[in-house]
User: Which sequence fits this backbone?
């Protein structure tokens, strides 16, 4: 088993999440050891929320789970790339397919993504 370097960033590793079929970047998350182990055990992407200071499995509330298809580790063993099947079509808690749904144009953010769901209806 690969030994990841959790010694940086207060025990957290950044996780880049990509769509398995399109390679589109869906989001950036963080994992601690527990989230990493749960992801390996269940095959479903599990993260550590820095805001809530808690473990959470993607899609617990929204149903938009991520099934892990491939795991890639960087050369320093301190960054994870997950290639996932995004079930439910939205990775972003704001209702978009990707968290990267805005583009910087002429100093302003322009929305380029299509909203898939209304967060107020999902996260009551």
Assistant:
């Amino acid at each position: 088993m690969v030994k990841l370097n959790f010694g940086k960033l207060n025990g957290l590793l950044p996780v880049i999440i990509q769509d398995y079929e399109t390679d589109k970047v869906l989001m950036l998350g963080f994992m601690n050891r527990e989230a990493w182990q749960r992801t390996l055990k269940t095959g479903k992407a599990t993260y550590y929320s820095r805001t809530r200071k808690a473990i959470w499995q993607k899609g617990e509330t929204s149903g938009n789970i991520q099934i892990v298809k491939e795991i890639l580790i960087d050369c320093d063993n301190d960054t994870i790339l997950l290639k996932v099947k995004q079930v439910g079509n939205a990775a972003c808690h704001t209702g978009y397919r990707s968290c990267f749904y805005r583009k910087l144009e002429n100093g302003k953010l322009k929305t380029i993504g299509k909203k898939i769901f209304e967060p107020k209806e999902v996260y009551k």
About this structure: The longest strand covers residues 66-73.
